[in-house]
Amino acid sequence: MSTAGIHYYFWMNSDWAYLGADRLEAIARKQGVPIHYKPVDLPQVYARTGGVLLGQRSPERQAYRITELQRWCRKLGTPINPTPRFMCPDATLASTVVIAINQAGLPVLELYKAILRAQWCEERNIADPAVLARIMQSQHLDADYWFEQAPHMQQRYQAYTDEAIAAGVFGSPSYVYQGELFWGQDRLDMLDEAIHMHPAPA
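^ 2-hydroxychromene-2-carboxylate isomerase, sequence as received from the core. Prediction below:
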């Protein structure tokens, strides 16, 4: 992980990653640093770092998550449904598609936002290849071609997950800049300050 820039570890089911997406991009543009997009298998991250999946958390913790989401949605002017119909399905295909497209040097911001928006705002099942294909087509991407590439990205998906854990990541979204970890979209201002204080090498 020696490459300069922001190493962005996120789950393709992460409501918080959706809320932070545009602000992360704005920080990177302002500071002139690249973002390295690295989808991870968050259930595996949890299993290896002591995390607890949402459905297994206490009612108090689940209720507070909804309260916090509602606060941030108001603050950011970005509405989402905290309990969508298809909540946190298998994100493997979505993740490996995003990795394949990113590895090809194509932009992935609008695609991964569209996938997250489909889950959290549009009541769509992102584990369904037909749903993913429609999302990709809306982004002018050849779904059949990228579905063929996706299985070849499984090793990289696992490598990103391993790398995230090695960097201290235990939740999504997480941002690592010059070895410093920032967990959660509510830490983006602190990430911005860290980049300002320690600019990346030219």
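The radius of gyration is 16 Å.
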